[in-house]
UniProtKB/TrEMBL annotation:
Keyword check for Repeat: yes
Name of the protein described by the UniProt record: Uncharacterized protein
Family annotation (InterPro entries): CellSynth/LPSAsmb/PSIAsmb, TPR-like_helical_dom_sf, TPR_rpt
Keywords assigned by UniProt, alphabetized: Repeat, TPR repeat
Species this protein is from: hydrothermal vent metagenome
Entries under Pfam families matching the protein: TPR_19
Transmembrane segments: none
Length: 205
């Protein structure tokens, strides 16, 4: 009985992870509103066996047993093949263990099936950025910012990546827009000043 209750709780947890929320709480700042995102709702495919493998994988991950975590997540994904959440978990473990190419291919598969799935987009942006695939990373972060206007990290990274490609106009536009909504964001202020400095615009720097 206890095992079934545990599995039920796990299943509910997994369902909540598999089906993305329609809204995202804003980061602490001056804008205190919840913005509805355009992210697609993905149906749950969780079942008891996949949920059990998921929780075993999660426990292994928390304890740093990456090979075991990958094994359990992979088994859970096979039992619930339509779950993008489980594939993202696999991608995260692959990245953590240095298998960057395999992780990238895995997450690209998720995006092909679920183009607006934010957890996969965020991980893919990280993967592209880490591999210096700046143009691809920009494309991903542009999409994230469009789907979730409250994603401050995506906007910061987008501003920095634009600047690295010497797209200063796009960079300043993104960072100034962010600061308009989050005037207390020191990182955005710092990056904007750095961009103006690179542009030799000492008045704004």
């Amino acid at each position: 009985m206890k095992k079934r209750l545990l599995l039920l709780l796990i299943s509910l947890t997994l369902v909540s992870c598999v089906t993305p929320a329609a809204t995202k709480k804003p980061d602490t700042g001056t804008v205190a509103e919840t913005v509805k995102t355009k992210e697609a709702v993905i149906p749950s495919t969780a079942n008891e066996e996949s949920s059990l493998n998921y929780i075993l994988g999660y426990q292994a991950e928390m304890e740093g047993r990456w090979a075991e975590a990958l094994k359990y997540y992979d088994e859970a994904s096979k039992l619930a093949p339509a779950s993008p959440y489980l594939k993202v978990q696999i991608g995260r473990i692959l990245l953590r263990t240095g298998k960057v190419k395999t992780a990238t291919e895995k997450i690209e598969e998720v995006i092909n099936a679920y183009p607006d799935y934010l957890p996969a987009l965020r991980l893919l942006g990280q993967l592209y950025n880490g591999q210096k695939k700046t143009v691809d990373a920009i494309r991903i972060y542009e999409k994230i910012a469009k789907i979730d206007p409250n994603d401050v990290e995506a906007q910061l990274l987008l501003g920095v990546l634009y600047a690295s490609e010497k797209k200063y106009s796009e960079s300043t536009e993104v960072l100034e827009k962010l600061l308009k909504n989050r005037p207390d964001n020191l990182m955005a202020l710092y990056y904007l000043g750095s961009v103006y400095f690179d542009m030799k615009d000492m008045e704004n720097a």
